[in-house]
Design goal:
- This protein is α/β, with parallel strands linked by helices.
- It has helices spanning 13-27, 33-61, 75-87, 107-114, 116-132, 157-172, 208-229, 243-257, and strands at 69-70, 94-104, 139-144, 147-153, 175-178, 181-184, 187-197, 235-237.
- The strands form 2 sheets. Strands 1-3-4-2-7-8 form a 6-stranded mixed beta sheet, sandwiched between helices. The chain has a two-stranded antiparallel sheet with strand order 5-6.
- A hairpin with a 2-residue loop joins strand 3 (139-144) and strand 4 (147-153).
- Helix 3 (75-87) packs across helix 7, helix 4 crosses helix 5 (116-132) and helix 7 (208-229) crosses helix 8.
Length: 259
Amino acid sequence: MNNDNNSDRELNEFQLRHIRLLTHLFAHDAITDDIVNDLRLTELEYFTLLEKYHLLEQKVNIDEKTNLLKFKKDYLTNIVKTASRIYHNADPRKYHISLIRFDIDDFSLFNNRYGHDLGDKVLVEIADIIRNNSRPTDYVIRFGGEEFDVILPATDIAGAKQYLQKLFEKIRSIEILFQEQIIKVTVSAGVSELIYDLSNSNIIINGSIEKDYENLQSQADDALYEAKYLGKNRFCVYDVTKAEQYRHAREAYVQNSQR
Protein backbone atom coordinates (compact mmCIF):
# COMPACT_ATOMS: atom_id res chain seq x y z
CA MET A 1 0.00 0.00 0.00
CA ASN A 2 1.31 3.43 -0.94
CA ASN A 3 1.46 5.74 2.11
CA ASP A 4 2.12 8.85 0.05
CA ASN A 5 -0.33 11.56 1.18
CA ASN A 6 -0.93 12.51 -2.47
CA SER A 7 -2.37 9.05 -3.16
CA ASP A 8 -5.12 9.61 -0.58
CA ARG A 9 -6.34 12.93 -1.93
CA GLU A 10 -9.54 13.10 -3.89
CA LEU A 11 -9.33 14.25 -7.48
CA ASN A 12 -10.48 17.82 -7.99
CA GLU A 13 -12.58 19.10 -10.88
CA PHE A 14 -9.50 20.19 -12.83
CA GLN A 15 -8.06 16.66 -12.75
CA LEU A 16 -11.43 15.08 -13.56
CA ARG A 17 -11.72 17.23 -16.69
CA HIS A 18 -8.29 16.02 -17.76
CA ILE A 19 -9.36 12.40 -17.26
CA ARG A 20 -12.56 12.95 -19.26
CA LEU A 21 -10.56 14.56 -22.06
CA LEU A 22 -8.04 11.72 -22.13
CA THR A 23 -10.85 9.15 -22.11
CA HIS A 24 -12.52 10.90 -25.04
CA LEU A 25 -9.27 11.09 -27.02
CA PHE A 26 -8.45 7.47 -26.27
CA ALA A 27 -11.93 6.36 -27.36
CA HIS A 28 -11.42 8.11 -30.71
CA ASP A 29 -7.85 6.87 -31.10
CA ALA A 30 -6.66 10.49 -31.12
CA ILE A 31 -4.29 10.42 -28.17
CA THR A 32 -0.58 11.05 -28.72
CA ASP A 33 2.50 11.36 -26.54
CA ASP A 34 2.61 15.10 -27.21
CA ILE A 35 -0.98 15.56 -26.00
CA VAL A 36 -0.30 13.57 -22.83
CA ASN A 37 2.86 15.59 -22.18
CA ASP A 38 1.05 18.91 -22.76
CA LEU A 39 -1.71 17.89 -20.35
CA ARG A 40 0.87 16.83 -17.76
CA LEU A 41 2.65 20.20 -18.07
CA THR A 42 -0.69 22.02 -17.80
CA GLU A 43 -1.50 20.13 -14.58
CA LEU A 44 1.96 20.88 -13.21
CA GLU A 45 1.52 24.60 -13.92
CA TYR A 46 -1.95 24.52 -12.37
CA PHE A 47 -0.75 23.04 -9.08
CA THR A 48 2.29 25.36 -9.02
CA LEU A 49 -0.02 28.36 -9.32
CA LEU A 50 -2.37 26.88 -6.71
CA GLU A 51 0.50 26.47 -4.25
CA LYS A 52 1.62 30.06 -4.88
CA TYR A 53 -1.95 31.21 -4.28
CA HIS A 54 -2.12 29.36 -0.94
CA LEU A 55 1.22 30.85 0.15
CA LEU A 56 0.07 34.33 -0.83
CA GLU A 57 -3.25 33.84 0.97
CA GLN A 58 -1.40 32.72 4.11
CA LYS A 59 0.92 35.72 3.92
CA VAL A 60 -2.02 38.10 3.52
CA ASN A 61 -3.74 36.64 6.60
CA ILE A 62 -0.65 36.51 8.86
CA ASP A 63 0.81 39.48 10.72
CA GLU A 64 4.49 39.56 9.74
CA LYS A 65 5.80 40.89 13.04
CA THR A 66 4.09 38.43 15.40
CA ASN A 67 3.16 35.55 13.05
CA LEU A 68 -0.36 35.71 14.44
CA LEU A 69 -3.56 35.89 12.40
CA LYS A 70 -4.72 39.27 11.20
CA PHE A 71 -8.24 40.27 12.18
CA LYS A 72 -11.02 39.11 9.85
CA LYS A 73 -14.78 39.42 10.26
CA ASP A 74 -15.55 35.81 9.34
CA TYR A 75 -13.59 33.92 12.00
CA LEU A 76 -16.63 33.29 14.18
CA THR A 77 -18.67 32.26 11.15
CA ASN A 78 -16.02 29.68 10.24
CA ILE A 79 -16.05 28.30 13.79
CA VAL A 80 -19.84 27.99 13.94
CA LYS A 81 -20.04 26.36 10.51
CA THR A 82 -17.46 23.78 11.53
CA ALA A 83 -19.16 23.15 14.87
CA SER A 84 -22.55 22.75 13.18
CA ARG A 85 -21.17 20.04 10.92
CA ILE A 86 -19.39 18.18 13.72
CA TYR A 87 -21.80 18.58 16.64
CA HIS A 88 -25.22 18.81 15.01
CA ASN A 89 -26.17 15.36 16.37
CA ALA A 90 -24.50 15.90 19.74
CA ASP A 91 -26.34 15.98 23.03
CA PRO A 92 -26.41 18.53 24.57
CA ARG A 93 -26.19 20.86 21.61
CA LYS A 94 -25.12 23.96 23.53
CA TYR A 95 -21.85 25.17 22.05
CA HIS A 96 -19.72 27.61 24.05
CA ILE A 97 -17.27 30.05 22.48
CA SER A 98 -15.10 32.36 24.57
CA LEU A 99 -13.21 35.41 23.38
CA ILE A 100 -10.32 37.02 25.24
CA ARG A 101 -8.88 40.44 24.47
CA PHE A 102 -5.37 41.07 25.78
CA ASP A 103 -3.65 44.43 26.05
CA ILE A 104 -0.01 44.98 27.07
CA ASP A 105 0.00 47.29 30.08
CA ASP A 106 1.51 50.77 29.58
CA PHE A 107 2.96 49.79 26.22
CA SER A 108 3.17 53.36 24.90
CA LEU A 109 5.15 54.41 27.97
CA PHE A 110 7.34 51.34 27.53
CA ASN A 111 8.13 52.32 23.94
CA ASN A 112 8.86 55.92 24.91
CA ARG A 113 11.14 54.90 27.76
CA TYR A 114 13.04 51.98 26.23
CA GLY A 115 12.59 52.41 22.48
CA HIS A 116 10.50 50.71 19.83
CA ASP A 117 13.07 47.97 19.18
CA LEU A 118 12.63 46.68 22.72
CA GLY A 119 8.90 47.24 22.42
CA ASP A 120 8.82 45.02 19.35
CA LYS A 121 10.76 42.35 21.25
CA VAL A 122 8.14 42.40 24.01
CA LEU A 123 5.33 42.27 21.46
CA VAL A 124 6.81 39.20 19.78
CA GLU A 125 7.60 37.44 23.06
CA ILE A 126 4.06 37.82 24.37
CA ALA A 127 2.63 36.77 21.00
CA ASP A 128 4.81 33.63 21.13
CA ILE A 129 3.63 32.78 24.66
CA ILE A 130 -0.03 33.14 23.68
CA ARG A 131 0.35 31.12 20.47
CA ASN A 132 2.49 28.37 22.03
CA ASN A 133 -0.01 27.86 24.86
CA SER A 134 -3.09 27.77 22.64
CA ARG A 135 -4.68 24.81 20.90
CA PRO A 136 -4.44 24.32 17.13
CA THR A 137 -8.18 25.01 16.94
CA ASP A 138 -7.91 28.38 18.75
CA TYR A 139 -7.77 31.60 16.75
CA VAL A 140 -4.87 33.75 17.99
CA ILE A 141 -5.16 37.19 16.42
CA ARG A 142 -3.17 40.39 16.50
CA PHE A 143 -6.13 42.73 16.75
CA GLY A 144 -4.07 45.90 16.46
CA GLY A 145 -1.09 47.60 18.09
CA GLU A 146 -0.47 45.93 21.42
CA GLU A 147 -3.85 44.17 21.52
CA PHE A 148 -4.40 40.45 20.90
CA ASP A 149 -7.64 38.52 20.58
CA VAL A 150 -7.98 34.80 21.18
CA ILE A 151 -11.13 32.95 20.17
CA LEU A 152 -11.55 29.67 22.08
CA PRO A 153 -14.02 27.32 20.34
CA ALA A 154 -15.86 24.77 22.50
CA THR A 155 -14.75 26.62 25.64
CA ASP A 156 -16.89 28.06 28.42
CA ILE A 157 -15.87 30.76 30.91
CA ALA A 158 -14.41 28.21 33.32
CA GLY A 159 -12.16 26.86 30.57
CA ALA A 160 -11.19 30.38 29.51
CA LYS A 161 -10.19 31.19 33.09
CA GLN A 162 -7.93 28.12 33.30
CA TYR A 163 -6.33 29.13 30.01
CA LEU A 164 -5.80 32.68 31.26
CA GLN A 165 -4.30 31.63 34.58
CA LYS A 166 -1.69 29.58 32.73
CA LEU A 167 -0.89 32.45 30.36
CA PHE A 168 -0.67 35.07 33.08
CA GLU A 169 1.83 32.95 35.01
CA LYS A 170 4.06 32.70 31.97
CA ILE A 171 3.77 36.36 31.00
CA ARG A 172 4.47 37.53 34.55
CA SER A 173 7.67 35.48 34.49
CA ILE A 174 9.07 37.45 31.54
CA GLU A 175 12.29 39.27 32.45
CA ILE A 176 13.95 41.54 29.92
CA LEU A 177 17.50 42.77 30.46
CA PHE A 178 18.04 46.37 29.39
CA GLN A 179 21.21 48.26 30.30
CA GLU A 180 21.81 46.01 33.34
CA GLN A 181 18.19 46.53 34.42
CA ILE A 182 15.55 43.79 34.66
CA ILE A 183 12.26 44.92 33.14
CA LYS A 184 8.96 43.17 33.90
CA VAL A 185 5.99 43.13 31.58
CA THR A 186 2.31 42.60 32.37
CA VAL A 187 -0.93 42.36 30.43
CA SER A 188 -4.60 42.91 31.17
CA ALA A 189 -7.44 40.94 29.62
CA GLY A 190 -11.20 40.85 29.25
CA VAL A 191 -13.27 37.71 28.66
CA SER A 192 -16.67 37.25 27.04
CA GLU A 193 -18.72 34.19 26.12
CA LEU A 194 -21.26 33.23 23.48
CA ILE A 195 -23.47 30.13 23.56
CA TYR A 196 -25.06 28.70 20.43
CA ASP A 197 -27.79 26.09 20.19
CA LEU A 198 -26.54 23.88 17.37
CA SER A 199 -29.90 22.13 17.12
CA ASN A 200 -31.17 25.27 15.37
CA SER A 201 -30.78 24.53 11.67
CA ASN A 202 -31.11 28.25 10.84
CA ILE A 203 -28.19 29.24 13.02
CA ILE A 204 -26.02 30.29 10.10
CA ILE A 205 -27.71 33.29 8.54
CA ASN A 206 -25.72 35.84 6.58
CA GLY A 207 -24.72 38.74 8.77
CA SER A 208 -26.10 37.43 12.06
CA ILE A 209 -22.92 35.72 13.23
CA GLU A 210 -20.79 38.71 12.21
CA LYS A 211 -23.00 40.82 14.48
CA ASP A 212 -22.53 38.26 17.26
CA TYR A 213 -18.79 38.56 16.73
CA GLU A 214 -18.96 42.35 17.08
CA ASN A 215 -20.94 42.01 20.32
CA LEU A 216 -18.51 39.41 21.66
CA GLN A 217 -15.58 41.74 20.99
CA SER A 218 -17.36 44.72 22.52
CA GLN A 219 -18.10 42.74 25.71
CA ALA A 220 -14.49 41.53 25.99
CA ASP A 221 -13.34 45.12 25.48
CA ASP A 222 -15.60 46.33 28.32
CA ALA A 223 -14.17 43.67 30.62
CA LEU A 224 -10.64 44.63 29.53
CA TYR A 225 -11.23 48.26 30.51
CA GLU A 226 -12.49 47.10 33.88
CA ALA A 227 -9.25 45.14 34.36
CA LYS A 228 -7.25 48.24 33.42
CA TYR A 229 -9.29 50.43 35.76
CA LEU A 230 -8.85 48.01 38.68
CA GLY A 231 -5.06 48.21 38.46
CA LYS A 232 -3.97 46.19 35.39
CA ASN A 233 -2.05 42.89 35.43
CA ARG A 234 -5.32 40.94 35.77
CA PHE A 235 -8.31 39.68 33.80
CA CYS A 236 -12.02 40.36 34.23
CA VAL A 237 -15.06 38.47 32.94
CA TYR A 238 -17.87 40.36 31.22
CA ASP A 239 -21.03 40.75 33.30
CA VAL A 240 -24.19 41.88 31.50
CA THR A 241 -25.44 43.63 34.66
CA LYS A 242 -22.46 46.00 34.85
CA ALA A 243 -23.05 48.28 31.84
CA GLU A 244 -22.85 51.47 33.93
CA GLN A 245 -19.67 50.32 35.70
CA TYR A 246 -18.05 49.57 32.34
CA ARG A 247 -18.89 53.03 31.02
CA HIS A 248 -17.44 54.62 34.15
CA ALA A 249 -14.31 52.44 34.03
CA ARG A 250 -13.70 53.29 30.39
CA GLU A 251 -14.12 57.03 30.92
CA ALA A 252 -11.95 57.04 34.04
CA TYR A 253 -9.19 55.04 32.40
CA VAL A 254 -9.13 57.29 29.31
CA GLN A 255 -8.97 60.41 31.50
CA ASN A 256 -6.09 58.99 33.57
CA SER A 257 -4.22 58.00 30.40
CA GLN A 258 -4.40 61.56 29.07
CA ARG A 259 -2.77 63.08 32.16
